[in-house]
Design goal:
The structure is a single chain. The protein has 158 residues and is of the alpha+beta class. The protein has one domain: Peptide Methionine Sulfoxide Reductase, Chain A (2-Layer Sandwich). The protein has five helices and eight strands. The chain has a six-stranded mixed beta sheet, with helices on one face. A two-stranded antiparallel ribbon has the order 4-5. A hairpin with a 2-residue loop joins β4 and β5. The two termini are 24 Å apart.
């Protein structure tokens, strides 16, 4: 089982989208790469923590590759938007790819380069090692499964 952490705006939609993909074994929404320990949703949304809303994706690389995961990821984000996705605005809604395994960086950078060819503007999606990670509150986990009519800016049919 491999892991990658992705930020694509509101973490509910990113999680719901990837849970529909074959080979995804487990997901968890969390707050990453900020400067405050154990932030709450309210603190993250206030902008004082520096965290980004993320989704940890655990996958079976014999069924789905990191390349495929990243192809799916690029379909659901606006990679040139800064600190926003859809109607969600704020530093916590920036896009990012946060790697756990150093060897994944080659695949990530190749994917980023391929995407950059599609845009004149510089892609704003961060690519960084995962520096800090705090699991989001229980009611945020699998939110769109528990609340099927809940808000989501991502087209889950892509």
């Amino acid at each position: 089982m491999k892991e990658i952490v992705l930020a694509g705006g509101c973490f509910w939609g990113v999680e719901a989208y990837f849970l529909r993909k074959k080979g995804i074994l487990e997901t968890e929404v969390a707050y990453a790469n900020g400067h405050m320990e154990n932030p709450t949703y309210k603190e993250v949304c206030s902008g004082i923590t520096g965290h980004v809303e993320v989704c940890l994706i655990k996958y079976d690389e014999e069924v789905i590759s990191l390349e495929e995961i990243l192809e799916y990821f690029w379909k659901i984000i606006d990679p040139i938007a800064v600190d926003r996705q859809g109607p969600d605005v704020g530093h916590q809604y920036r896009t990012g790819i946060y790697y756990i395994h150093k060897e994944d960086l080659v695949v990530i950078l190749k994917s980023l380069e391929e995407q950059q060819l599609k845009y004149q503007e510089k892609i704003a999606t961060e690519v960084e090692p995962l520096k800090s990670y705090y699991t989001a509150e229980v009611h945020h986990q699998k939110y769109l499964i528990k609340n099927p009519n809940g808000y989501c800016h991502i087209d889950l049919t892509k």
